[in-house]
Specification:
Blueprint lengths: L1 H31 L14 E2 L5 E3 L8 E5 L8 H13 L5 E4 L6 E5 L6 H17 L3 E5 L1
Parallel strand pairs: 2-6
Antiparallel strand pairs: 1-2, 3-5, 3-6, 4-5
Helix pairs in contact: 2-3
């Protein structure tokens, strides 16, 4: 009985030491490659705001605004998508679209270089309203 206890403690100690050694090795490797593994490091990508449909930051730095259309399992919100496309075409805005799923999930990138000042702010406000009214639609602003 005593031998079993000693064996179990020894195995657990070895497993713990192996994990610590692996963590140390990965940190050393990251430092060699110039990458820091700091959990407090700057987060990348869009960050949550007080409005659940609006995010701060974009996934593509060439976008002033990104509209993302998600799917609950039955396709994207077609009405919201069509409203966004009406704004884009009505104002002759440059954009790119990328499919990000199997059910029509799409991300639309809008550089908005054609717009300035209040016209740009009005467009962003309209896109926020569409996101708020839509199903699984969000807007990310650089």
């Amino acid at each position: 009985m005593k031998i079993k206890s000693v064996v179990i403690v020894a195995v657990c100690s070895l497993a713990f030491a192996a994990c610590k050694g692996q963590q140390k090795n990965s940190q050393d490797q990251a430092k060699k490659n110039g990458q820091e593994q700091n959990p407090a490091a700057k987060k990348t990508g869009p960050q949550v705001t007080s409005d659940p449909t609006v995010y701060k930051g974009v996934t593509n730095d060439s976008c002033a605004v990104e509209m993302a259309f998600g799917s609950p399992g039955s396709g994207i919100d077609g009405k919201a998508y069509n409203k966004v496309m009406e704004i884009i075409k009505g104002r002759n805005l440059a954009y790119s679209a990328k499919n990000i799923g199997r059910e029509g999930e799409t991300r639309i990138c809008l550089p908005l270089t054609e717009l300035k000042g209040t016209e740009k702010e009005t467009t962003i406000t309209e896109l926020k309203k569409i996101a708020k009214e839509g199903q699984l639609v969000s807007v990310s602003i650089r």
